[in-house]
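Input record (one chain):
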Amino acid sequence: MANKQYVWMDNKFIEFGKANVHLLTHSLQYGSGVFEGIRAYSTDKGPAIFRLGEHSRRFMRSAKIVGMDLGMGQRRIEEAIISIVKKNRLQSCYIRPFAFYNDNRIGLSVLGKKVSVAIAALEFGNYFTDKDKGIRCKISSWQRMNSYVLPPEAKLSGNYANSILASLEAKLSGSDEAILLSPDGYVAEGPGENIFLVEDGRVLTPSKDSDILLGITRDSMLKIAESMGLETEERMIHREELYTCDEAFFTGTAAEITPIVSVDSRKIGNGKQGPITKMLADKFSGIVHGKESEYAQWLTYV
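The corresponding structure, as predicted from the sequence alone:
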């Protein structure tokens, strides 16, 4: 980081290295925070934040689901996000809004505990080292939790213990990433990504009933595919369909569009990025870099 970097926290800027909390902070101990992942991309008009309104709305929804009062509205969150990108003089970055119980008293109850909101923005490259070449996945022995256990539609910090265990298992087995199934045995998602399949030219993805986070990039991909004349379908997907599909890929703010070339050592298609995946990834790249005027409404220029 060439310039001095800052974090926006509780309506003020704090130097990056000084944005600290107590060891016993409630959300550190118990995973009671909520967060978002957002990207800004460099364009000919300067940095542009991708689908800021949708991300900030989901951040507010996550807080509401877990009963957390942020003490500010969506518009203020968006203003703060824009301000930290400006303050850090970033062209392309990852943005992490985080709301947490900033209280160091021992105990599970969150009643009466202070809520702090912090937003970091930092340089960020590819989430997967071999993103363009494609990644190898393993179906996890850990199931994706459902709404009987924890709310999968909320980006709740504690939910990601499920993701961490699944990802660790996959990597220790020699794979790049995990794929989690729902408690009913249907394909759900990756630890931090939504998943898509391509079968006979159709673009398929697990439906909301599959215990998934409703990803912003997932929604974007469905809209992009339809605009390009591709048939899309959201439905329950059987595990074995992963083995026999023509193409597969992950979507997510961090992962962007990442091809999956094998699942459980079964090669997907020809074992390389498929043509429809590449076409969608190229279109997505053009959109986020401000090259596709019909999607201008998805970009907030800083």
